[in-house]
Amino acid sequence: MLLAMSGCGEAKMSQKQVFAMDTIMTLTAYGRNADAGLNAAQQVISSLDVMLDPELTTSTTYAINNAEGKNIAVSGQVAKMLSTAQYVYKKSGGALDLSIYPVIKLWGFIDDKFYLPSQEEVQAELQKLCFDKLVLTSFPSSGSFAVSLPAGGQISFGSVAKGCAA
């Protein structure tokens, strides 16, 4: 008995390299619509990159970091990322702390002006850690969210953004 199996050929593979979140990413998709899938994935990654970049003045992260303690409206996606990060922060005893951004800046990783800070400088910046004081508010009637961080506090999604993109 011979069966025709027209759909059992090798699936088409497509790849695309994307630079986002300060990382070169290689995306791979299989199937008839692989190229469309790669383009859609690139759009999602680019959107996250723009939304989460703490140095981009139009980003959500920049708004949070410069709100000086005021509430900032955030998307459901950002609220979910913050909620998950808060959960991991608590479960890990603070090992994942998105408010490490002032320390990252001190070392020059943001502007590529690398610098070896003194222990005193590091300790001064570590005093700004405040992820335990981040307040995430949900407004169920409208489906909206707001976040506030103590004045002077700053966050970076650098430790979690690529995982969210994946």
TrEMBL record:
Pfam families for the chain: ApbE
Entry EC number(s): 2.7.1.180
Keywords: FAD, Flavoprotein, Lipoprotein, Magnesium, Metal-binding, Transferase
Cofactor: Mg(2+)
Reactions it catalyzes: L-threonyl-[protein] + FAD = FMN-L-threonyl-[protein] + AMP + H(+)
Keyword Transferase found: yes
PANTHER family in the record: FAD:PROTEIN FMN TRANSFERASE, THIAMINE BIOSYNTHESIS LIPOPROTEIN APBE
Name of this protein: FAD:protein FMN transferase
